[in-house]
What we know:
Shape: globular
CATH topology of the largest domain: Nucleotidyltransferase, domain 5
Largest sheet: 12 strands, mixed
CATH architecture of the largest domain: 2-Layer Sandwich
Helix content: 25-40%
CATH class of the largest domain: Alpha Beta
Strand content: 15-25%
Amino acid sequence: xxxxxxxxxxxxxxxxxxxxxxxxxxxxxxxxxxxxxxxxxxxxxxxxxxxxxxxxxxxxxxxxxxxxxxxxxxxxxxxxxxxxxxxxxxxxxxxxxxxxxxxxxxxxxxxxxxxxxxxxxxxxxxxxxxxxxxxxxxxxxxxxxxxxxxxxxxxxxxxxxxxxxxxxxxxxxxxxxxxxxxxxxxxxxxxxxxxxxxxxxxxxxxxxxxxxxxxxxxxxxxxxxxxxxxxxxxxxxxxxxxxxxxxxxxxxxxxxxxxxxxxxxxxxxxxxxxxxxxxxxxxxxxxxxxxxxxxxxxxxxxxxxxxxxxxxxxxxxxxxxxxxxxxxxxxxxxxxxxxxxxxxxxxxxxxxxxxxxxxxxxxxxxxxxxxxxxxxxxxxxxxxxxxxxxxxxxxxxxxxxxxxxxxxxxxxxxxxxxxxxxxxxxxxxxxxxxxxxxxxxxxxxxxxxxxxxxxxxxxxxxxxxxxxxxxxxxxxxxxxxxxxxxxxxxxxxxxxxxxxxxxxxxxxxxxxxxxxxxxxxxxxxxxxxxxxxxxxxxxxxxxxxxxxxxxxxxxxxxxxxxxxxxxxxxxxxxxxxxxxxxxxxxxxxxxxxxxxxxxxxxxxxxxxxxxxxxxxxxxxxxxxxxxxxxxxxxxxxxxxxxxxxxxxxxxxxxxxxxxxxxxxxxxxxxxxxxxxxxxxxxxxxxxxxxxxxxxxxxxxxxxxxxxxxxxxxxxxxxxxxxxxxxxxxxxxxxxxxxxxxxxxxxxxxxxxxxxxxxxxxxxxxxxxxx
Length: 770
């Protein structure tokens, strides 16, 4: 039997060994390149039971993708079943498991007095613990992990070498006698306490309202009491993050359920080995005596990003603190996460009051994943810890392609034959520090798998930092550069996830993406098949005075929309949102048609309408105004507006009647919440109108706008009611975190079909479609 998938480094061979021995079978099991080979013999009934239980009872972190069976003549010399050493060279294949949350057995050990790992914060086994964050190379063995510097004690060695032990070949195995340890530091680096005393003092400081910088699994986190408003506000000020919601860690699921409404599916996700931050609805009425989560944690937001402890360090710390804490990435706003004690002290010294650090090196930063339960299934909004670098199966081929990703919510990806490895979330590439992390992530991926790419895929935008780096890499390796239009990549990523060949109608709605005509797109309808697309519909464009500034100032989007709707006379509705000088200047640039690029962005349309309905005229994080509009709408009930379709070169969604109705209803004093709902409903209906007009049976929804739960639910319901087959991203984010996968899919299709006219040697060109 040749078993392929995630079957190495997850306790699969010990499982096979124990199962074969239970059934009285003989033979062996061994690692072979990217698979596991099992040779087993015995009575037919026992062999059939072995095959069945192999699939049904494999270790929780194993993922069997295929089993090839070949019948051999009996070997009468075999008397037992054993684990054989690997006999073939290691193939650089993407089979590395992701970092895994603490299993129940390890959690029990750290809280059981008398166990030799009692209160040890680095306890792990083959079912849990660090993986991707500590591996330096392949094959996955201790000498090529950051645990290499810790020599195993006699007891750990005995467990490591015992096939019947759950720590058999657990590469990060450690205990208090031989493994990493904790230190508590002051911001100037002075050691205040060590080991368990460091943990207890850190917990005490958090209870007193101090800000703790915690070096966790994949980097620093900032921790503060979530019920203490002054402490949370201080963190916001020091971190320079005025409004963006913080995640909250609770000691247990039971504790989280006191503050939040948690469904069965949500509980399952929180308790899973991936243990993401999960967006769940907050309770409006709390049990008597329960302190409220500080309003500063997630201002005006009916949802809370909930997480549970996922390392022994978190479990022990949270048990000491006893209540919910803010747990957010250890960085200044929009900067990358720090991963070493030295880096943390240097960059977080003015944020944190204390530093709880350890001496197990982190090889690469791995942030927390963010997810939600959508229509009964988990949907990732940020793919990192617990999920990266698990591969996505692609159409078979031999190409080795590197995708450098988008400018925002960046991830990078590598195609290795039939598998796409998408790295962990990096973030926005707006500053030099983030761009350095982006470059290191690419170098890390290429060196880890020992790959020289045969092509580089990037965004079509000529000035993105990722595009400039892609040009450099294309020249360095002497390989073609494939430029992929942003919205094409959104749809291609979802198609790759769901193994769709096309043609499909792709609806790609987001904030901005560089179009093949040089304008800003963001409300697109594309017919996509393979590496090609055809733009068949869009949102009617409107100007954005000041260009990119409109993404941070929704009032500018509103001004541009009103100007396009009714000229300067219409703009007076929001004049109060500007100073006299600002309003005069913006009116002038609109009138002269300068510094006001037109855009078909649905994201900016959301911003504009949110402003008209009283949302923040300026924002401090992406999507803030659109979130306010969604939350406002969900407070109302069903209500209707109408957006018209206009047929020109493209099918255009004309927002004119929509804006006219909104202005009229505002003047009449209609409840803004009802207007917000009607706006969402009109957009969902417009998608159905376009789909019905085009008659494409399969519809794919992607782009950041479909993070809006209300818009997505309304759209999917309407499309399915009319008989369309609808797909949306689940395993990869609908936002720009999925772009790298889409770039790979498009580049692979173009190369596979020999369409080299869309490739260039270091300079982006327009891809197929225009």
